[in-house]
Specification:
Strand content: 5-15%
Oligomer: single chain
Structural class: alpha+beta
Strand order of the largest sheet: 1-2
Number of strands: 2
Largest sheet: 2 strands, antiparallel
Number of helices: 3
Length: 94
Protein backbone atom coordinates (compact mmCIF):
# COMPACT_ATOMS: atom_id res chain seq x y z
CA UNK A 1 0.00 0.00 0.00
CA UNK A 2 1.35 3.42 -0.91
CA UNK A 3 0.50 6.95 0.27
CA UNK A 4 -0.40 9.34 -2.58
CA UNK A 5 1.20 12.77 -3.04
CA UNK A 6 -1.90 14.20 -1.33
CA UNK A 7 -1.31 12.01 1.75
CA UNK A 8 -4.18 9.68 0.91
CA UNK A 9 -4.34 5.92 1.35
CA UNK A 10 -7.13 3.47 0.53
CA UNK A 11 -8.43 1.50 3.50
CA UNK A 12 -8.99 -2.08 2.29
CA UNK A 13 -12.63 -3.13 1.96
CA UNK A 14 -12.39 -5.97 4.48
CA UNK A 15 -11.00 -3.55 7.12
CA UNK A 16 -13.73 -0.96 6.38
CA UNK A 17 -16.42 -3.63 6.68
CA UNK A 18 -15.05 -5.06 9.95
CA UNK A 19 -14.85 -1.59 11.52
CA UNK A 20 -18.11 -0.28 10.01
CA UNK A 21 -16.33 2.58 8.21
CA UNK A 22 -18.92 3.90 5.76
CA UNK A 23 -18.56 6.97 3.54
CA UNK A 24 -18.61 10.18 5.64
CA UNK A 25 -17.71 8.31 8.85
CA UNK A 26 -15.67 10.52 11.16
CA UNK A 27 -12.32 8.99 12.15
CA UNK A 28 -9.17 10.19 13.87
CA UNK A 29 -5.52 9.21 13.86
CA UNK A 30 -3.59 8.72 17.07
CA UNK A 31 0.19 8.22 17.20
CA UNK A 32 1.54 5.68 19.66
CA UNK A 33 5.33 5.56 19.41
CA UNK A 34 6.08 4.63 15.81
CA UNK A 35 2.54 3.36 15.13
CA UNK A 36 -0.42 5.33 13.78
CA UNK A 37 -3.82 4.14 15.00
CA UNK A 38 -6.98 4.94 13.03
CA UNK A 39 -10.17 4.88 15.08
CA UNK A 40 -13.80 5.59 14.46
CA UNK A 41 -14.97 8.60 16.50
CA UNK A 42 -17.67 8.11 19.15
CA UNK A 43 -21.09 8.83 17.69
CA UNK A 44 -19.84 7.93 14.21
CA UNK A 45 -22.11 5.81 12.07
CA UNK A 46 -25.06 8.17 12.42
CA UNK A 47 -25.27 8.42 8.67
CA UNK A 48 -29.08 8.65 8.66
CA UNK A 49 -29.10 11.49 11.21
CA UNK A 50 -26.37 13.33 9.29
CA UNK A 51 -28.30 12.94 6.04
CA UNK A 52 -31.47 14.35 7.60
CA UNK A 53 -29.50 17.25 9.12
CA UNK A 54 -28.00 18.11 5.70
CA UNK A 55 -31.39 17.86 3.95
CA UNK A 56 -33.35 19.87 6.53
CA UNK A 57 -34.93 22.99 5.00
CA UNK A 58 -33.65 22.12 1.52
CA UNK A 59 -37.08 21.50 -0.07
CA UNK A 60 -37.96 23.79 -2.95
CA UNK A 61 -41.69 23.00 -3.14
CA UNK A 62 -44.03 24.22 -0.42
CA UNK A 63 -46.68 21.53 0.00
CA UNK A 64 -48.49 20.28 3.05
CA UNK A 65 -48.49 16.61 3.94
CA UNK A 66 -52.15 16.45 2.90
CA UNK A 67 -51.27 17.90 -0.54
CA UNK A 68 -48.55 15.31 -1.05
CA UNK A 69 -50.82 12.44 0.06
CA UNK A 70 -53.56 13.65 -2.30
CA UNK A 71 -51.09 13.42 -5.19
CA UNK A 72 -50.19 9.86 -4.29
CA UNK A 73 -53.83 8.80 -4.03
CA UNK A 74 -55.06 10.09 -7.38
CA UNK A 75 -55.65 7.36 -9.96
CA UNK A 76 -53.18 7.26 -12.87
CA UNK A 77 -54.29 9.14 -16.00
CA UNK A 78 -56.26 7.17 -18.58
CA UNK A 79 -54.67 6.33 -21.94
CA UNK A 80 -56.58 5.79 -25.14
CA UNK A 81 -59.86 5.91 -23.31
CA UNK A 82 -58.95 3.18 -20.84
CA UNK A 83 -57.28 3.24 -17.49
CA UNK A 84 -53.92 1.49 -16.97
CA UNK A 85 -53.87 -1.27 -14.35
CA UNK A 86 -52.49 -0.17 -10.97
CA UNK A 87 -50.19 -3.16 -10.67
CA UNK A 88 -48.42 -5.43 -13.10
CA UNK A 89 -48.96 -8.36 -10.77
CA UNK A 90 -52.46 -9.76 -10.82
CA UNK A 91 -53.79 -12.46 -8.59
CA UNK A 92 -55.02 -15.52 -10.40
CA UNK A 93 -58.57 -16.66 -9.72
CA UNK A 94 -58.63 -19.79 -7.60
Amino acid sequence: MRITTKGQVTIPLDVRERLGLLPHTEVQFRVEGRVAVLEKLPGAGRRGADLIRRMRKSATVRMTTDDILALTREPPPATNGRQEPRSRHRRSAR
